[in-house]
Design a protein that fits this description.
This protein is an alpha+beta fold. It is built from four helices and four strands. The chain has a four-stranded antiparallel β-sheet with strand order 1-2-3-4.
Length: 149
């Protein structure tokens, strides 16, 4: 579960847990997360991956950045960041990044994100192609079946 509403009671409890977990003050965590997210967004922009979009708020280039708290049922709440952007072909991409995992190995984490992005894009393109073919077959069956029958 991801909480991003700053005024919710659960958000306040989660923030308190995160502060105790990391041993940092709230403003330090937020600055660290924001700086990390900006670095990733700048790297994405350097490689010209995000494209302009009317759906995405352009915080850094064509990338929207949100500071979030990630709370999973099996782990303690932890600070995170969400980067959203659009890529060629009208596809939207959302990266949800756990700050503590990112800080353990920033270079490896970003390399892993970039490595996964290509295959994900190809898989989505393949699924879209199959869906278009299936939709066309259904349309032909409906229109030709109605005309013949």
């Amino acid at each position: 579960m991801i909480h991003s509403a700053p005024d919710s009671a659960q958000q306040q409890r989660t923030n308190t847990a995160v502060l105790r977990l990391a041993g940092l003050q709230s403003r330090d965590i937020e600055k660290l997360a924001r700086d990390s997210a900006m670095g990733i967004a700048q790297e994405l922009m350097k490689h010209q991956i995000p494209i302009p979009s009317k759906k995405i708020r352009p915080d850094v280039g064509n990338v929207q950045i949100d500071m979030i708290i990630i709370e999973e049922k099996v782990s303690s709440p932890e600070p995170g960041m969400r980067l959203q952007f659009d890529v060629e072909g009208g596809m939207g991409v959302t990266f949800t990044i756990k700050l503590l995992e990112f800080l353990a190995d920033p270079k490896g984490y970003v390399t892993n994100l970039f490595t996964q992005l290509g295959p994900m894009r190809r898989n989505v393109q393949r699924m879209r192609t199959h869906k278009r073919a299936a939709d066309a077959a259904i349309y032909r069956a409906l229109t030709q079946g109605a005309a013949n029958g």
